[in-house]
Amino acid sequence: MEQPQSSSPEPPSDSEYQTDYELVLMYEQNRSLSEPWFTVSAIAYSLLILITFLGNSLVIWAVARRKELWNPRNIFILNLAISDIRELRRK
Hints:
Largest sheet: none
Structural class: mainly alpha
Shape: elongated
Strand content: under 5%
Radius of gyration: 24 Å
Distance between the termini: 52 Å
Oligomer: single chain
Order of helices and strands: HHH
């Protein structure tokens, strides 16, 4: 009687790649989210990042465009928007 084939591929023959294969297997076995929820959370995070970037860009554009918005409170908000976009670029 034949053994059922496992869904995971065979490990590479080189010992250097064996560790990488074992790490991938550990990751797949210990994943905290199943595949559909992982996809949903990735899409949600992507939308959140996009909305954050657009909102901060609008704040920068509005404050930079209108001189009457140049007061200490709005300059502080402008600095927060700039630093938020810089953090998005870093990750």
